Amino acid sequence: MRMVLDWKEYEDAVFDECKRAVHFQDAEVLRDVRLLGKDSGVKRQIDVMIRQMNNGVVMTTLVECKHYASKVNVKVVDAFIGCLEDVKASKGVIVSEKGFTKAAISRAHKGKNDIEVDIVSLGELQQFQAQGAFPYAGDSAL
Hints:
By secondary structure, the chain is α/β, with parallel strands linked by helices. The protein has helices at 7-22, 74-87, 102-109, 122-126, and strands at 27-36, 43-54, 57-66, 91-96, 116-120. The protein has a five-stranded mixed β-sheet, with helices on both faces. Helix 2 (74-87) runs parallel beside helix 3.
């Protein structure tokens, strides 16, 4: 029987999978981070942050955990993209078990070219096991 996770256990599981996926790379994986927004001037809460060197440049991936009872909507994706822009992150990933609305998927994949946003489930995240598969593989990831 599969045990139902509460929101904290869900975040723990996502954090553990991020650590597992990058354990062999020179990456730092942190949980519940507060980053100062460059534009807003306020601290933004980040569920999981991954930092690693990529060709001499520090790349930052932010992971947002959404343990919702329904699909993640476009407003959530918009807010996340705003956070990524504010803290000058390189990439963002939203993790949700309930899925995403069509508008949310479209917004995540058709946004600005300078920020990559991916949307996955915890199960999909668990499948990343090849070196370089997470968070960066050449010019893209996840």
